[in-house]
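Reopening this one. Same input as before:
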Amino acid sequence: MTSKIALITGGTKGIGYAVCKKLCSLGVHVIMSGRDSSKLRKAVNSLKYDGHVIEGLLLDITDNESIHCARNYVRNKYGHLDILVNNAAIRVEQYGKAPSEQPLSEWLKTFNTNLFGTISITNALLEPVKSSPSGRIINVSSLLGSTTTHTHKDSYTYSDDFKSLPAYSASKAALNSWCVHLAYELRNTDVIVCSIHPGYTRTDLNDGHGDQDPEAASENIVAACLESDRTTSGTFLYNGKKLPW
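Same output, byte for byte:
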């Protein structure tokens, strides 16, 4: 039986790397993508050394030519894509500033990767995903993308630290909105689209703070990659439970 094929953006470290490793361990053929060739080579070789079947694909989701090459690679080599994990994201804002003190330049950088880049690579790979008998598009979002939760005083999002990341939070909220719209477009297909909050995870993106390691976060994402329940399409999930928008 041919294994499923998955492409993970931002797969060379943190949550992305853990997702690649977990999917490999489950027999999925993984295409790890990253924008730094040396880091990509090192990460791929590390998993190959552990006996996993994996390949690397140089991909910058903010670069149209890079996206074009990735699309042609997937289409020409495989003809379809079973799982797309939109994990690549950045956080460029500094903790400790008031929301109004964050410069517009950081908003533009953040949205260019976290929203526009994600939309671009998704649109480019949409036909290969639709060609799969069980296509999955998994957007790695964040609880910071929940506008409702941001108003809950008992949530960790209701704090000076996380209110100092308005661009990052808004980019994830916009990503969630994109998820709803795309799920609607694909409602009569075999493709499931959902956003996943991986949990508060210790990564470089949040300066190593968090309640869990990337391996724990990957469990939540991988479960969504293999989900068969179509009612999850167009939802925002954490450990299988729906989160408020």
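So the earlier flakiness isn't reproducible anymore. For the record, Residues 62 and 112 are 7 Å apart (CA to CA).
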